Amino acid sequence: MKQQNIPKFIQLLKNNMKSKLPGKKAHNAMRTEPRIPKAIDYIMKTPVPAAVLILLYPKNKTFNFILTLRSKKVESHKGQISLPGGVQEGNETLSQTALRESKEEIGVSTEIVELIGKLSTIYVPFSGFNIYPYVGWTSKVPDLKASEDEVEKIIEISIDELINNHNQRKKNTTIRGVPVTMPYFNLNKEIVWGATSMILSEFKEIIKRIT
User: Has this prediction a pTM greater than 0.85?
Assistant: First the structure.
């Protein structure tokens, strides 16, 4: 949907995503170290294309976007914080995947969303997904409804919270029996790490370029 009266922030964001993206440098800032050894069955997998959506909308004199707490019923990344999205189906384009999955997971109508660009693709070894992140916006706060099967909770995050460096942190923990240092975002009292944090790291760098 082509929306009228595009805010300056959205226009700047759209233009900036056409230039060279921060890519791996931004991703690496949120990469858990040391890297967890890859199991052989994941190395041998053909990457599965998937798409996610950063949906921007104006609220409280800034822009917000949605994260979800994945339910325990989903096949992968159970109980983790993620962007709305999922696996590509049939002959749909990846942008259509991002919109369809967002409608299924958080109930946002695809008709009100205007896609303005995409971020760098990121591969997740342990799930085998090639994730294609898209950025879209809508001019009003959307009506949202969490999917009973896939989403335990819908979480609103403001752009101001994302770009606040105080919310980008690290902690020592253990993943799959390996002691690691895990970078994460502390957003709306939720720990956002892994691929989602890497996507948001690149998005944060782009926002910093235009503000």
Answer: yes
